[in-house]
Design brief:
By secondary structure, the protein is of the alpha/beta class. It folds into two domains: 167 residues, 3-Layer(aba) Sandwich (Rossmann fold), CATH 3.40.50.1100; 97 residues, Rossmann fold. It has eight helices and ten strands. It has a six-stranded mixed β-sheet. A four-stranded parallel β-sheet has the order 5-4-3-6, sandwiched between helices. Helix 1 crosses helix 2 and helix 1 crosses helix 5.
Amino acid sequence: MRYPTIADLVGNTPLVELTRILNDKSRNNRILAKLEGNNPAGSVKDRPALNMIVQAELRGEIQAGDTLIEATSGNTGIALAMAASVKGYKLRLIMPENSTQERKDAMQAYGAELIGVTKAQGMEGARDLALEMQQRGEGKVLNQFANPDNPNAHYLTTGPEIWQQTDGEVSHFVSAMGTTGTIMGVSRYLKEQNESVRIVGVQPDETSSIPGIRRWPKAYLPEIFEAVRVDQTIDVNQAESEEMTRKLSRVEGLCAGISSGGALAAALKLEQTIENATIVVIICDRGDRYLSSGVFSQS
């Protein structure tokens, strides 16, 4: 008998209905949450992290024992650290120093080496440094921002799961946009099943800095991003994202991260404009890696 490994447990996450978050149910809409925090390393990034490594192996680009390099704000780094541990790779992660301590600790728990850049340098600076290190021969950059294996992971797994779990009834898909891998892959799959499914991207407004959601400068827009795959974009601000994160935990019993609060805030804005809809929202990670941020201690 073959028993599963940790890698085998990536994906096949639950889809649950949020029953109390909607105050007005007269429009006959349903909001369903895809619980990506149930992945082994705790986020939706487990899917592309594992797929990027597996596909690079199949192409002969890397082999066990090599050093991998990646710029990350948190979840991808944790997911890659888990996947690298399972597959036998060394991992160097470059991240802004203002990332939460829980994220840093989780990466190091899996054996990753952390390299910090300043808050001012941000993810743009981290991405630049990763490529510089690769040019110096210090390792292989998987490059989640330009690697098609990122969205393909969601085309192959997340999209089909949502379609099957809703019996094809999904009418709207809402996802925060960071690397944009999730929304690109899921959009491609769902549109192939039903062109009328609406794909809604969530980004922070000009004044907000929300972990896991980005409004990229044009020069740093992920190469995997295709604007045509997003039907609508909704801006959210930091205050409403954090408030919705707390509400999700206290009203629905679902403790998730701030990007999930932002995605849900956007879904509720969308819900007010439509009827008879089945809205699927990506809950991309768990809230325990944000405890030190103080977001849950506010009233």
